[in-house]
Design goal:
alpha+beta; eight-stranded antiparallel beta sheet; elongated
Length: 289
């Protein structure tokens, strides 16, 4: 694992850098204090993480996989742990079968085509009876004419009924698709994913344990970007002139070796403390060695 320039003691996420200082430079991103004139020196700054996440289980269940250990580097979206999802997988398969059956039914227009064909036959018989009576009076009984007319009307209504049934089948297919999507979501909710890129600093649950929904499984912190906090004398510098300026942060590593990181002032607290100071912080990009 690469070694970060800023080190934590144990799992403490707040470092007091006793010999570090942040010296303000000009607005030029690469400018150095020596070139841009003196700025305030902030002694004994605090270096803290910007982003961290205590990642919970979204669903209750048995922890079947733990993909990482303390100290592992992860990226946003990485699978860190798995909760038993056998039942949701079975439910998804069932939903998929229902969806395929509903889709086949919705796309099947045999009943509609048969109803149309039956209506054509019934209409032809009805018209043939009328034509026969026109040629020879009473050659077809009036009751048979009325019956053939009714059969034709019935066949026309059957077309409408078949179309309605096909529409209902399409709605059933859409409902089945929603069930498949819900089953997918149920499976995804049993995957413990990292919301940020960073380092795993704590694994709180063990393989095979039962976890409750909302219970924290892992703790991840982001180390590629850090925040440096310090105080500036209100009598020396106005807050509006500090915000947005480049900052150089000097870190002293074990053994007395020093490193410098650059960043930018991103926050100035408008409230002046009793001692005449106001709090500022800068975001810096933490290099790996």
């Amino acid at each position: 694992m690469p070694r970060y320039m800023v080190h934590a003691l144990g799992v403490i996420l707040l470092w007091t850098v006793a010999t570090s200082h942040a010296q303000l430079a000009s607005n030029q991103p690469t400018a150095r204090p020596a070139r841009s004139g003196p700025g305030p020196t902030l002694e004994n700054c605090l270096v803290i993480v910007i982003d961290e996440a205590e990642i919970p289980a979204k669903e209750a269940g048995v922890l079947t996989e733990l993909k990482v250990k303390e100290g592992a580097e992860v990226r946003a979206g990485d699978l860190l742990a798995q909760i038993d999802d056998r039942r949701p997988q079975i439910e998804k398969q069932l939903s998929e079968h229902e969806y395929h059956a509903a889709t086949e039914k919705a796309s099947n227009d045999i009943n509609v085509r048969f109803a149309k064909a039956a209506a054509d036959v019934a209409e032809a018989e009805y018209l043939a009876g009328l034509d026969a009576n026109r040629r020879v009076a009473n050659s077809v009984a009036a009751a048979d004419i009325r019956k053939s007319k009714l059969e034709h009307r019935k066949a026309v209504l059957q077309i409408e009924q078949s179309g309605l049934e096909q529409t209902i089948a399409r709605h059933d297919a859409e409902a089945a698709a929603s069930k498949v999507e819900a089953a997918d979501d149920n499976i995804r909710r049993r995957k413990v994913l990292s919301p940020i890129s960073g380092a795993v600093i704590e694994v709180r649950r063990h393989l095979g344990e039962w976890v409750q929904a909302g219970e924290v499984v892992l703790h991840v912190v982001r180390l590629d970007h850090l925040k440096v906090e310090g105080f500036v004398k209100a009598s020396q510098f106005r807050g509006s002139r500090i915000r947005g300026r480049t900052v150089t942060v000097e870190m002293e590593l074990p053994g007395g070796e020093k490193r410098e990181l650059t960043g930018r002032i991103t926050f100035v607290n408008p409230i002046v403390q009793t001692a005449g100071d106001y709090r500022v912080w800068a975001e810096i990009e933490n290099r790996q060695e």
